[in-house]
Design goal:
546 residues, alpha/beta, Rossmann fold, Luciferase, domain 3, GMP Synthetase, Chain A, domain 3, nine-stranded mixed sheet, five-stranded parallel sheet, 18 helices, 27 strands, 26% strand, disordered C terminus
Length: 546
């Protein structure tokens, strides 16, 4: 059963009920009115402070886009990329692509222009739908993207090099195009990267998407009475696949544009949210803001909030203990996953297992796991090995990369590259990562990219970027810099130099030291971690928590 059938079912059964709400608190604050007054204030409506969509409207918008794609020859096998901030148009576009039988290709909105070009060409995208935040980036590369046939713009004041999406779909049919889909049909391409920083295209079929919806609903028990507050970006499998639980249940979701603590809690209160998925920094910020008295939660309606869950990075147990002190009636859960396993859920703690905070859990619904040695043999209980998972959400392959596919997929098992151990009760604990990817605030940072940039500085002889433990972000990027003889360089100078990088890629610490390399020329990052963390990264994190 394709996941598009769930949307059609919801439109039929709950057509007049609200499916999606978009809330933009920054615009709301500029206007100085309550979100609930938006229907009464024309200026607020015009500036899109709060918009909503019923299930019928959602389905009809998806059908219109599907018909446009089919009419223009973009059906089965075509790839349609989405480059948008979270907005009310995002999910109808995604489902319109699927209904046409094409493949949805979500793009990270943090990508620079050259990264957008690289990913579109790697995925062999035929169409790109983008929003106003990306006009400048697209202007630089649109005429150099090989294979891209159409550029569609969502928003006001369409740039001259693109076509207006609203105008194109205006006259299209809003009936289901009824394109037959099977579990084995290709459905979506997501992007991931290894330590080299070069994105890999991850191909999933329709079985993957549907399995993620079933897994999510099984784990968190969404009903039609639930309201899911979605804050992370929809290009990420984590946000979307958690929302799939709402789709499965036919319940409302709220897309919040912004992650300030007061905005999150106000949205929970005003929209009557029952489930909120947070990243570690956001949960930390909420607690800190409450402790400082910046938010008076006594004036908020939070009693209906039943579940707070966290994913995308290791979760400090101390944070959850602190959260439970502030919100004792909340259930808590965490999920482990990868884009290669269609996002969260292949390993799952379970709301009933808060006594095991610190573990990532056991195999999720419809999933299997094992911890193996370098030969693929299961290790003894308590020993450290590589975590591997198997289930209906495992990717088909790395698109156009058979070598990487063969390295990660073996006999149906996905080799995650994460080192883990299992305790006597069968709960899995991550120990360290094979790869050097730094996870900071839920975002992957690729050291090689930062190192290559820093090496362009005339005073730098060598550089290595590692992750250091951080209470709020989980990890921060630290650059160990070796300066050329007869050159001088200051931390302030390098911070100014790094201003040319996207903010999330800038090193949070600059350390002047020699960069150790082994006889083959590879940087010895374990030595650097031991030196600056005192021991392993995970052990250092545990020390902070204690």
């Amino acid at each position: 059963m394709p996941i598009t059938d769930l949307l059609a079912r919801n439109a039929k059964l709950y057509g007049n009920e609200v499916s999606l709400v978009e809330v933009n608190p920054e615009l709301q604050e500029k206007r100085g009115v309550s979100w609930r007054d938006y229907e009464l204030v024309e200026a607020v409506r015009t500036e899109r402070c709060r918009r909503e969509l019923t299930w019928s409207e959602f389905d009809r918008k998806a059908n219109k886009f599907a018909h446009f794609l089919l009419e223009n020859g973009f059906g089965k096998g075509s790839k349609v990329a989405i480059l948008l901030m979270n907005c009310l148009e995002w999910l109808p576009l995604y489902f319109g692509i699927l209904k046409a039988g094409a493949l949805a290709v979500p793009l990270n909105f943090r990508y620079a222009a050259d990264e957008i070009k690289y990913c579109l060409e790697l995925a062999e995208a035929d169409v790109l739908v983008f929003g106003p935040e990306f006009i400048g980036r697209m202007e630089n590369v649109f005429d150099r993207i090989h294979g891209l046939q159409r550029l569609l713009f969502v928003g006001e004041d369409c740039p001259t090099f693109a076509e207006d999406y609203d105008e194109l779909v205006k006259g299209q049919s809003d009936e289901d195009p009824m394109i037959p889909l099977t579990d084995e049909d290709d459905a979506a391409i997501y992007f991931s990267s290894g330590t080299t920083g070069f994105p890999k295209a991850i191909l999933h079929d329709h079985l993957s998407l549907m399995s993620s919806a079933e897994t999510e609903q099984n784990h968190h028990g969404q009903t039609r009475d639930d309201v899911f507050l979605c804050i992370p970006p929809l290009y990420h499998t984590g946000a979307k696949m958690h929302w799939f639980g709402s789709l499965y249940a036919g319940s409302k979701a709220v897309l919040l544009r912004g992650a300030k603590p007061k905005w999150i809690l106000q949205a929970v209160s005003d929209e009557r949210a029952t489930i909120v998925w947070l990243l570690v920094p956001w949960a930390q910020d909420i607690l800190d803001a409450l402790d400082r008295g910046e938010i008076d939660d006594k004036n908020l309606n939070l009693e209906q909030w039943r579940l707070m869950h966290i994913g995308a990075q290791p979760v400090p147990p101390s944070l959850i203990h602190r959260w439970k002190q502030r919100f004792p009636n909340h259930d808590y859960d965490t999920n482990y996953g990868l884009s290669e396993s269609i996002g969260p859920g292949c390993v799952h703690l379970g709301m009933e297992n808060i006594h095991k905070v610190g573990a990532i859990g056991k195999a999720g619904h419809n999933w299997e796991l094992s911890i193996v040695d370098e030969h693929g043999q299961a290790v003894a209980q308590g020993d450290v090995g590589e975590l591997i998972v198997r289930g209906p959400g495992v990717m088909k392959c790395y698109y156009r990369d058979p070598v990487a596919t063969a390295a990660s997929l073996k006999d149906g098992w996905l080799y995650t590259g994460d080192m883990a151990r299992m305790d006597e009760d069968g709960f899995v604990f991550l120990v360290d990562r094979k790869k050097d990817v730094i996870i900071s605030g839920g975002e992957n940072l690729y050291p090689v990219q930062i190192e290559d940039f820093l090496r362009s500085h005339p005073a730098i002889k060598d550089v290595a970027v590692i992750g250091l433990p951080d209470r709020r972000l989980g990890e921060i990027a630290a650059a160990i810099v070796s300066v050329k003889p007869d050159y001088t360089c200051t931390e302030e100078e390098l911070n100014e130099f790094c201003a040319a990088l996207p903010r999330y890629k800038r090193p949070r610490r600059i350390i002047f030291d020699e960069v150790p390399r082994n006889p083959t020329g590879k940087i010895e990052k374990p030595r650097l971690r031991e030196k600056y963390c005192g021991h392993s990264l995970v052990a250092a994190q545990n020390e902070i928590e204690e």
